[in-house]
Structures are given as structure tokens and as C-alpha cells.
């Protein structure tokens, strides 16, 4: 007799290359498909990657509004979806906006409600809106109760502090590392040479960054730094991988500086690991992070990583990270020092020993979901 699979609904995912969506999709890629079924719910009007996951056997549910837009309609729509036989609702939460999803799940009789903390701040460009959202988040955090969910996950201790505060004992929160497929990212000198050849970067010093073009990722700051770097290192090139709401601002600043011939914008790509191979330095000037998966990926590729000191120190799982204050001159000097080069080697064992092998880490999630079948 075929064993009934445990059905999990992940919400929300978005039509972006953001870390939360990437994590949810990665969990599906590596989890045991014989035991677990993933479906996804989104408030985005469409998902560019929907067809891919549908072909893998997942369903994509589209909600017509966010809870903050129409709480009644949101709860009704989510409730209807959850009553279609789901065992688990996995909520990927960056900051508190409401508890309507949790309450809809309880009303629908969902056995397991998982809240997964992913961030340490509010990622909005507009200062006033960000402060408004942050204030609302802090107020809601004080109202949050442990009985609103059954399980609590986090990507880092700092993300747990931001989302759960003192409301949830740390002993009740499981850390789910933002792990990677180590072999996919492992340093490969031949692939590096091929990628550099394909983009005509054979003799260039490539400073790279991967991430959604957003307030949090702070690519505009990196451009300000690069404007000075390229004046002192003539062979320097800046490679920005990703897209997002600040893409036009970034393009405008590149044009304003007159450095279009030294900056490469790739847009969103499916093979980010190949771009990591061709880089000489990985730069992550984030204003805040939960624990950035891309930084684990960059370390797995053996890259020297220059990182904002606002990024949690939990992300340092190799010796290839240099934390630098978000001051332009300090970043310029830190990056220029790397033009002298360094010995880039495989660090597969270090990544694995630190607990960031996705094939091992997915077992944490499988064990958690399996608690449903044990009552």
C-alpha cells in the first residue's frame, strides 16, 4: 500500500529572485518527494517560474490580495486553499504585518503551523514607510503568542530575535541553516576560465555581487565605492547579478558616473554559481540580513568575501570573510587590497563541517514535518 505523502503549503513566495522564495524552492528540490508534497501560495499576480514547479508536481495557488489589503477576503481565500487536504502551513516570515495567516490555518484545522524567521529588519526603500512598518512590527511582536503556531524556525539567532523576541523561548526555536548543494558551488578553475572567456574578462579584476536590487542589499553604496576603485585599478569590473525595485536607480547612477563600460548587469540568472566562479571578490554591502544564503554560496565557491558589518557573524563559516563598516573609504581600500590576489582553493569540507550541506540539513525539515504523522 502506497504511503500517503505529507502535504505542505509554503506561503508566501514572490515573483522575485529573493532569498525567501529561493529557500522555499530549494527545500522542495532536495526534500524526499516520496514522503512529502510541496505546494505554494502567492499574492503575486504571476510567477515566472510557475510552469517549472507545476511540471514537478506542485500546485501554485494565487491569492487576490494581501491580508493588509483585505483581511476578510485574504482569510477566506487562504482558508479555502488550506482545506484542500494540507497537513502543514509553512510561513516564510520576514517581519510582522498581521497574524491572519496563522489564524486562518488554525480555523482550517491545520495540524502543523511553522513560522520561519528570515530577516532582521524591514526591507522597504521609502524611509517613512519603513519606519511605519517597523513600528507596527514591534507592536505586533509584543502581541504574538506561542499558541499561534506549532513550530518555530530561524535562519540565524539574530533573525529569531527580530521576529520572535522574548515571546518564544530559544529552546523552542530550531535553526535551519541556509545550506547549499556544495558540489554545485565548489571552486572549479576550468569553469572559472571558461566563464571569464565567455564574458571577455580574462585579464580583469572582477568585483561581484548577487542579490535582489533592493534597499537591504545596498548595491548603490557598492557603485559609489566602485566609482573610486575603477579610477585606481584600471582593470576593475563590477558584476551585478539580479534584478529588483531599485534597478532603474542603479542604471541611472551608472550612467551618471559614466562607467557603463565597466559595470555588467546580468539581470536574474538561473546559474548564479557559474558567475561566482568568475569573480575575484564577492561584495555584500547589506544594510541588514537574516543570514544570506548567497554568502554561504560565495564561501563555498572559495571566494574572498567583503561583507558589511551589519551582516550576522554567524555567516562566517570559513576564513574567507572580511567584515567592514559601511564607510566608503574603508570599502574602497579593502577591495583594492585584493587586487594583489590570493590563493583560491576548495573549501567543501569546511562548508560541510559547519552544517551547511543541504543534503544533510534538509533532514531537519523532514524530521519536523514528520511529526504530523506521529500526532
What would you note in describing this structure?
The protein is α/β, with parallel strands linked by helices. It is built from 15 helices and 13 strands. It has helices spanning 19-30, 50-55, 71-82, 100-107, 127-143, 157-164, 182-185, 189-198, 219-232, 247-257, 272-278, 293-300, 328-337, 348-353, 358-370; strands spanning 6-11, 36-42, 60-62, 88-93, 112-117, 151-154, 173-175, 205-210, 236-241, 263-267, 281-284, 304-308, 321-324. Strands 3-2-1-4-5-6-7 form a seven-stranded parallel sheet, with helices on both faces. A six-stranded parallel sheet has the order 10-9-8-11-12-13, sandwiched between helices. The protein is globular. The two termini are 21 Å apart.
Summary?
This protein is α/β, with parallel strands linked by helices and 375 residues long.
- Summarize the biggest pleated sheet: 7 strands, parallel
By helix and strand content, what is the structural category?
Answer: alpha/beta
Shape, please?
A: globular
How many distinct beta strands? 13
- C-alpha Rg (nearest Å): 21 Å
Task: Compile the SSE list and pairings.
Blueprint: E1 6-11, H1 19-30, E2 36-42, H2 50-55, E3 60-62, H3 71-82, E4 88-93, H4 100-107, E5 112-117, H5 127-143, E6 151-154, H6 157-164, E7 173-175, H7 182-185, H8 189-198, E8 205-210, H9 219-232, E9 236-241, H10 247-257, E10 263-267, H11 272-278, E11 281-284, H12 293-300, E12 304-308, E13 321-324, H13 328-337, H14 348-353, H15 358-370
Parallel strand pairs: 1-2, 1-4, 2-3, 4-5, 5-6, 6-7, 8-9, 8-11, 9-10, 11-12, 12-13
Helix pairs in contact: 3-4, 8-11, 9-10, 9-13
Amino acid at each position: 500500500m502506497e504511503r500517503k505523502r505529507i502535504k505542505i503549503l509554503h506561503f508566501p513566495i514572490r515573483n522575485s529572485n529573493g532569498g525567501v522564495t529561493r529557500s522555499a524552492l530549494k527545500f522542495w528540490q532536495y526534500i524526499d518527494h516520496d514522503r512529502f508534497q510541496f505546494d505554494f501560495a502567492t499574492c503575486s499576480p504571476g510567477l515566472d517560474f510557475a510552469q517549472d514547479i507545476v511540471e514537478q508536481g506542485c500546485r501554485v495557488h494565487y491569492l487576490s490580495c494581501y491580508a493588509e489589503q483585505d483581511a476578510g477576503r485574504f482569510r477566506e481565500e487562504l482558508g479555502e486553499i488550506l482545506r484542500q487536504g494540507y497537513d502543514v502551513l509553512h510561513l516564510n516570515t520576514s517581519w510582522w504585518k498581521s497574524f491572519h495567516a496563522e489564524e486562518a490555518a488554525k480555523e482550517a484545522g491545520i495540524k502543523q503551523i511553522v513560522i520561519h524567521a528570515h530577516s532582521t529588519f524591514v526591507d522597504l526603500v521609502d524611509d517613512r514607510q519603513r519606519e511605519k512598518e517597523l513600528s507596527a512590527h514591534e507592536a505586533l511582536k509584543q502581541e504574538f503568542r506561542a499558541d499561534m503556531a506549532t513550530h518555530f524556525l530561524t535562519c540565524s539567532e539574530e533573525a529569531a530575535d527580530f521576529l520572535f523576541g522574548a515571546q518564544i523561548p530559544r529552546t523552542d526555536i530550531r535553526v535551519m541553516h541556509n545550506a547549499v548543494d556544495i558540489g554545485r558551488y565548489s571552486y572549479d578553475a576550468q569553469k572559472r576560465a571558461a566563464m571569464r572567456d565567455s564574458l571577455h574578462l580574462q585579464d580583469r579584476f572582477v568585483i561581484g555581487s548577487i542579490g535582489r536590487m533592493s534597499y537591504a542589499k545596498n548595491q548603490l553604496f557598492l557603485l559609489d565605492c566602485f566609482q573610486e576603485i575603477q579610477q585606481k585599478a584600471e582593470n576593475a569590473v563590477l558584476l551585478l547579478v539580479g534584478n529588483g525595485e531599485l534597478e532603474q536607480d542603479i542604471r541611472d547612477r551608472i550612467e551618471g558616473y559614466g562607467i557603463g563600460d565597466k559595470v555588467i548587469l546580468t539581470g536574474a540568472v538561473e546559474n548564479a554559481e557559474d558567475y561566482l566562479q568568475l569573480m575575484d571578490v564577492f561584495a555584500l554591502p547589506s544594510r541588514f540580513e537574516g543570514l544570506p544564503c548567497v554568502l554561504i554560496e560565495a564561501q563555498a565557491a572559495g571566494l574572498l568575501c567583503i561583507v558589511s558589518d551589519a551582516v550576522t557573524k554567524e555567516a562566517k563559516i570559513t576564513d574567507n570573510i572580511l567584515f567592514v563598516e559601511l564607510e566608503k573609504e574603508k570599502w574602497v581600500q579593502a577591495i583594492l587590497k585584493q587586487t594583489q590576489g590570493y590563493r583560491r582553493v576548495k573549501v567543501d569540507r569546511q562548508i560541510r563541517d559547519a552544517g551547511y550541506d543541504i543534503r544533510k540539513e534538509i533532514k531537519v525539515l523532514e524530521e519536523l514535518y514528520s511529526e504530523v504523522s506521529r500526532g
